Amino acid sequence: MLPMQDINPTRRTPILTYVLIVINVLVFLWQLTLSEAQLQQTFVDLALVPAALRTQPIGESVLDFLRSMFFHGGFDHIFGNMLYLWLFGDNVEDRLGEILYLILYFASGFVAGLAQVVIDPNSTIPMVGASGAIAGVLGSYLLLFPGVRVRGLVLLGRISTMQELPAWIVLGFWFVLQLVNGFASLDVNSQYGGGVAFFAHIGGFIAGIVITFIVTRFVPQPPVEERREALYERAQRYRF
Fold first, then answer.
1. CATH number of this structure's domain 2-187+194-238
2. Which of 182, 232, 239, 233 is nearest to 205 (CA)?
3. 123-125-128 Cα angle (round to 5)
4. DSSP H or E run through 177
5. Which of these ranges, 5-9, 44-48, 167-171, has the smallest mean pLDDT?
6. pTM, whole model, 2 decimals?
7. I need a labelling partner for 196 at 20 to 30 A (CA). Which of 11, 34, 189, 226 fits?
C-alpha cells in the first residue's frame, strides 16, 4: 500500500515537519549540482561510514550521523521519505510538541545509524537518508494513533485501487517488511538489500516507539473523547 493521506486532524501548523522537509529537499537540490564522482566523495567525507567510526574522533562521528540524515541517494529515495514524513510527521509533532518532536526525530536517526553499524560494522558504504529518523516518526505514530484510517493505493498487478486501512495495519506491515528484508539480507548469498539499510529502519522504528512510550508516561495527553470529537468534526476536509 502506498499511503496518500491520513484522516487525522491537527490543532496547529506542523512548522518543524515542513522545515525538515524543506531542508532535505534543499540539500538534495544541492546534490544535483555535483558530478557523480563529487557526490560519492561527499558521501564518503561527510556521511556515516560504519568502517570509519573506529578511527574517527567522537565529535566527527556525531556530525557524520547528523549529516547522513539529510543526504539522499536519488529521486525515489527522497520522494518516499518526504512523503512519509509529510503524512505522519504533522500529527506526531502536534501531539508531542516541537521540542520533544525534534528529540524523537534525531534520537531515532542516531539509533537507526547505530543499529546498522552494529549489524555491519565493517561496511565501507556511506549511509545516507532520513529513513531511520522518519522510521522513528512512524513508530511514534503507531503508538499514538493506531486506529486512525490511512488512505492509499493498493497495487494489484496493473490494477490499483484506493483503500482505507487503520494505521496499525499500514505501519505494522511496513515494519514486518523491514524485518523480513533485513534478516534476508544477512545471508551472504542473498540478493536482498540492494544498498537499503533495513536495520536502520528497524532500529529507528523501535526507538520511536520506546521514546514515545516514555514521553506519554510523563507528558499529559489530550483526553480520548476530545481526540475523537476532533476527528469526527474535521475528518471531511481530509477526504478527496
1. 1.20.1540.10
2. 182
3. 125
4. helix 167-184
5. 5-9
6. 0.87
7. 34
